[in-house]
Amino acid sequence: MKNKISICLIGIATFCVSCDSFLEREPLDKISSEVYFKTSKDLELYVNQFYTAFPGYGGYDAGPFWTDKNSDNLIPETYDSRLAGYTTIPGNASDAGWNWGDIRSVNYMLANLGHIEGSMEEAKPFIGEAYFFRSYFYYSLLTKFGDLPWVNKPYNTDSEELYNPRVPRNVIVDSMLVDLDRAIEYIPLKKDVEEGRLSKEAALLFKSRVALFEASWEKYHNGTRFGVENPDFDKYYRIAADAALQIMKENTFSLYTTGDPKTSYYQLFNKVSFADNPEVILARTYSVALGLTHRAQNYLLYRGSQLGLSKDLVDDYLCVDGKPTAAHLDFSDKDLLSIVKNRDPRLAQTMWIPGDLRIGTGDELVYFEKPFIDMTGAYKCITGFQLKKGSDPYTVDTENAETGAIAFRYAEALLNYAEAKAELGELTQEDVDKTINLLRQRVGMADLKIDAIVKDPNWQFPEISPLLNEIRRERRVELACEGYRLDDLLRWRAHELFMNKRPRGFYFNQSDFPEIVPNKDILLDEEGYVDPYKQSLPNGYQFNPERDYLLPLPTSELVLNSNLKQNPGW
């Protein structure tokens, strides 16, 4: 039996240091490479430090399920400054997210592989992991800043390369894809790696994600100040589709199901261990025995956490027959039970509705009655659509929970493939049946039929095809509150969805909250829906499409390196 590791337990090498700015140029010199990088075990211990970069739980949050707070999916009490158009130019690198320490640490290892004395075959998986992580860290910078310097070796304080300019984003992406191809070549398949370590399939999925992002960016930003010269988005769509298809052809993964459409999606996310889960490609796990726990269940079960799902997200769920709510004249959104009636079951498995088991431990079971909109502080839900996804009513100790956090899952591969093939104009019904319809069948939804798509007057992207609209809808619903939405909005150039608009919550029924005074204790719009930013953002989000698609470089870096140019509009 393989020894199992947890990616949240992996120790950080003590000799890694980083600097706050200027491409983290300080040398790593606490332990010499000649002494350390000799065996595959040395490499394994070194790359372990990078696993903490994957999504996980902190001490006082709900971890990955709060990552959509920077989008139109999940609304925090204090608005997101980027969406609101209130981002300012930071003075230093750390405040800007201009972080290069991890990339330098990867480069340090890759620059010192010549000291290995043992088997290179044994070392290859960990070398592959290093190439994966360099691409992973670059992706974070790419989505923030676009064009970047390409850094593939550890610079010293006197390195001339510190003063290099940025290179075009597509050149960066091509370099990232080369790294990922090395990772795919070197890292074994999932069945041949220890639980908790990267696999070939994880690298393929991330390759698909990177290529899909660049393809969409080049297509939908073409002709704008954020576009690239000589865009070749079909090339990247092809790479994205091929990488996803390779995972699908492995037949290693499938969608998790309990056999019950009403529970399968919900139960996917609240497991302590994902070792035997057919959908999970990589996850972080936690352990009371090892002193590694979190408080996420406290926030999901006992608190509204001063946030809530947006009405815009809730409205995007289809009815169970595959038709939009606009096709059903009897549909009502005036209370939670009416909202979920005959709707995509993923909606009721993503937000709390009356009658849900909230606390399944102790002598007396506790059921959800109504959103915590009448509570104060950290206990309040600000939209009335209270986040349930990721919760586990049977958690015994919510202060020391062990619920795992998924880093990569098979559903993304299906969605990436469907979108890329549709963008290429090659998506067939057979393709839909082995991607979108598998996701729908898990929850008892009607299949998507390419030749029978019902027109939705509320399609969010009326300028593109009905098929692409439905694929984008499926992606939003399936991946809700998993941290994908902002990247999707950016790559689709989708500012019209939220610009000059305020997010809304549920319809406020006074009878359910007799003690609350409308527009004193809770803000409502003219139609009676919760309007949390009515006072703080009276004109809605002021996102600037000529500026805010990329973040500004920090002033300190522009001073240190005159060859760096600020992003457009800043």
Structure description:
This protein has 570 residues and is mainly alpha-helical. It is 34% helix and 4% strand. It contains 20 helices and 6 strands. It has helices spanning 33-36, 40-47, 81-84, 93-96, 101-110, 120-145, 169-186, 200-220, 233-250, 264-268, 296-302, 311-315, 336-340, 345-348, 410-423, 429-433, 436-442, 466-478, 485-491, 555-560; strands spanning 74-76, 280-284, 307-309, 357-359, 366-367, 405-409. The strands form 3 sheets. It has a two-stranded antiparallel ribbon with strand order 1-3. A two-stranded antiparallel ribbon has the order 2-6. A hairpin with a 6-residue loop joins β4 (357-359) and β5 (366-367). α6 (120-145) packs antiparallel against α7 and α8 (200-220) packs parallel to α19 (485-491). The protein is globular. The N and C termini lie far apart (56 Å).
